[in-house]
Design a protein that fits this description.
The protein is of the alpha/beta class and about 350 residues long. It is about 15% helix and about 25% strand.
Length: about 350
Amino acid sequence: MKRTAGEIAQHVAGRLVGDPEKVLNGFSPLADSRSDTATFITSTKFRKHLSLTQASLVILKESDSAFCSVDHIIVNDPYYAYAKATELFIHETVNKQIHSTAVVDDSATVGEGSSIGAHSVIGANVVIGNDCSIASGVVLGDEVQIGKGSILNANVTIYYGCQIGERAIIHSGAVIGADGFGFANHQGEWVKIHQLGRVIIGNDVEIGANTTIDRGAIDDTIIDHGVKIDNQVQIGHNCHIGADTAIASSAAVAGSTIIGKNCAIAGLTGFFGHLEVADNVTLTAMSAVTQSIKEPGHYASGTPLQPYRKWQKNFTRFKQLDEMSRRIKSLEKELIDLKGE
C-alpha cells in the first residue's frame, strides 16, 4: 500500500517540510533505511543516522529538523506519530464475504461489511458486528458476541458465551474462554470445578498470538478497554485487568488477580493468585508478584544477569543468609547484654 507524504502529514497532524506528492510504500528503520520509505527519530543520540539516511521521509521533532537533509514531518512526539502513520499501511481484507467452506449456524447474525474466512465455524446465536474480519479456521462457540470493527486472525478460538468489544485485534492461536484451572481435592482425587463464568473483553483491546484467557469460575474474567496483551500470556480465571494496562510476552497471571489501570507488566512476570495491584504500577521483567501492591510506582525482582563465577559466589552467600541472620541476632543480643552490665 502506498501513501503520499501529504497524506501522512495530515494523518499525524504534523507540519511537512518537502513535497506533499512524494509517494511512500512503508517504513524502514532509521539506521537501515531504504528509499521510497518513511522513518522516524526519537532521540538526539540517533542524529548521526540522519545525515546518512536513505529514507525519503523522516518523522521528527522541531529540534532535529536542521540536521535532516531529506523531506520530513515535524511533530511533538515522533514515536506517537509513527504509530498513527502505520495505520495508513496496514493490509485490509479485500473481499467482504463469507467463504463457501465456512460453517455458519442459521441463528447467527453477521453484520454488514464483515467477512468470514475458509473453514471457520460460527456457532448458534453468535452475533458478529459490522465491518469485522474473521479469518480462516476461527471457531466461535455458541452465543459469542464480537463487537464491530474487530479482527480475529487465523485459528482463534472463542468459547461459548464470551463477549469481545469493538475494534479488538486477536492474533492467531489465541484461546478465549477455556476452563480455568479449578479442582477440588477429595480424598486424594482431583474433582473438576466446572467453570460457569465468561470472558468479557472491552473495546480497543489487542491480544497476542497463542495467548490464553480463562473463563471465570462463577463471576466473569474481565479485560477492560484499551488493554494490550502480548503473545503467549496466560490470564487465569476471574482475573480483572484494568483499562489501558499492557502485559508483555510470557507473563502469567494466576486466578482472581486484580490488576489496576495504566499498568506496564514486563515479560515473564508471574502473579500469585488473589492479589490486587494498584493503578499505574510498572513491573520489570521476571518479577515475581507474591503479595498485593497498594501504591503506584516502579517495582522489580528476579536476579539480573551477571558473570557466572560472580553469580555462583552470590548464590552461595544467598544460601547462607538464614545462618548469617541468626548469628547477627545472637551478636546483637550479646551486645545489648554487655551494654546492660
